[in-house]
Write a structure and sequence with these properties.
By secondary structure, this protein is mainly α. The chain has 24 helices and no strands.
């Protein structure tokens, strides 16, 4: 009787907190009370919609989750937690442009209104974390890596991803290994150790290694989902987003690199058209088949809906290089550089395009600039040395080849280096 009386007072005086208490305890009335509160017009309506958004996301009802998050924002656009719900669902859907806007909105709301809702010591770290994610979405992996610092937890898993994306194997593996050591048992953050290792394997054309890490990630994500399912409405973590925005698109690309196009297409066919990474991998797979029209169609589509994100046009420029159109590729890389001036990949490929045009003299500046943002990238130093070799600068070429020899290279690039180095000994 005392417990029931206490709950009745709790439900009357703090309806939102009671609804969350009931939902977290697995009671169906918790969700019903949240839905009732969400139909109101006070501050509790926004909080209830945020809770319903996370509940829907955990069940992989992403479209419903997005509707709840948007309704929460309409109810209270200054509430920082609104952007948590939006970041969660836009990330799960692969909506990069929207995710970037959510991250910027989160930082702004925290700066202006964080003191009303957050513990003061947590505001600045969260703003730095969100701004680092914006950097990653612009290809600025170096500065994101630096800003994230050396701590464990959320910053550590993003450091692993940022280091892998800037082709820095040693730093990526250090962060990934530290992350695994810091976690005990199954943990959602430890999934990113698999992601970092996947990106590193893809970077050097280790297709079998990439498939292994992707398969391990899927096993891990499904085990994690099973673990959390028993934990209540807010503990559930669906494995579906990991499959949709990482495992399947990257698996399709890796399979296509090994000429298993039927398997690649089967994986891609079930992915949503509005997922950016899915569209980019569709374009990449088509480019590997030399289906330039289909590849261009996907790159145009993704680039149009993500005007502040440089990745689709980078893929497009890479396709044009493969198609032997260096001038058109350079035009794309110039556009990308304007969006992400610290993104090393388009700068390096810009240098390769200039080499295709027999302008190794101009390529040197691009390689040097790319080196500021990805100094431990083996292919960059190999191509830099090759350009210097073409220009007859043997001593400088030798230096770049020596750097490349200490870094990760694909088998093809390692073979090029092996042929080039004896000439410069």
């Amino acid at each position: 009787m005392v417990a029931k009386g206490s709950e009745a007072i709790f439900a009357t005086t703090q309806p939102y907190r009671y609804a969350m208490y009931a939902a977290e305890g697995g009671r169906p009335e918790g969700k019903k009370r949240l839905e009732h509160l969400a139909d109101g017009e006070d501050l509790d309506a926004a909080w209830a919609d945020i809770a319903l958004s996370f509940m829907a996301a955990n069940e992989d009802r992403s479209r419903d989750a997005l509707d709840f998050a948007r309704r929460a924002k309409a109810a209270d656009p200054d509430l920082p937690n609104v952007f948590y719900a939006l970041k969660n669902v836009d990330g799960n859907l692969g909506h990069d442009e929207n995710l970037r806007a959510d991250l910027l909105g989160s930082s702004n709301a925290l700066a202006l209104h964080g003191a009303e809702y957050w513990t003061s010591g947590t505001i600045e770290p969260q703003i730095r974390f969100d701004s680092s994610r914006v950097m990653i979405l612009s290809g600025d992996y170096r500065d994101a890596f630096r800003q994230l610092g050396s701590g464990i937890g959320g910053s550590l898993f993003l450091r692993a991803i940022a280091a892998a994306a800037m082709h820095d194997r040693a730093r990526a593996l250090d962060a990934a290994n530290r992350l695994v050591r810091a976690e005990t048992g199954l943990s959602d953050t430890a999934e990113d150790a698999f992601k970092a290792r996947t990106l590193l394997a893809i970077d050097v054309g280790n297709w079998n290694g990439a498939l292994d890490t992707l398969q391990n990630l899927e096993i891990y994500a499904r085990a994690l989902e099973k673990k959390y399912r028993a934990g209540g409405a807010f503990s559930g973590i669906s494995a579906a987003p990991e499959m949709r925005i990482f495992v399947r698109p990257w698996s399709a690309y890796v399979l296509a690199r090994t000429r298993q196009f039927a398997k690649a297409e089967a994986l891609l066919s079930g992915l949503p058209a509005d997922c950016d990474i899915c569209g980019r991998m569709r374009g990449r797979v088509a480019a590997l088949r030399h289906d330039w029209r289909t590849a261009s169609w996907w790159f145009v589509l993704v680039a149009a809906r993500s005007p502040d994100i440089p990745f689709a046009e980078t893929d497009w420029g890479q396709m044009l290089l493969l198609d032997g159109k260096p001038d058109e590729a350079i035009a794309k890389f110039a556009l990308v550089h304007a969006k992400g001036p610290h993104f090393a990949d388009p700068l390096e490929m810009w240098g390769e395009a200039l080499m295709q045009k027999n302008r190794s003299d101009l390529a040197l500046a691009k390689f040097e600039e790319a080196n500021k943002y990805a100094p431990n990238w083996g292919r960059l130093h190999l191509k830099w040395g090759t350009a210097l070799s073409y220009l007859g600068k043997r001593a400088e070429a030798k230096q770049q080849f020596a750097i490349a020899a200490r870094l990760d290279l694909s088998r093809a690039d390692a073979a090029v280096l092996a042929r080039a180095r004896p000439k410069h000994v």
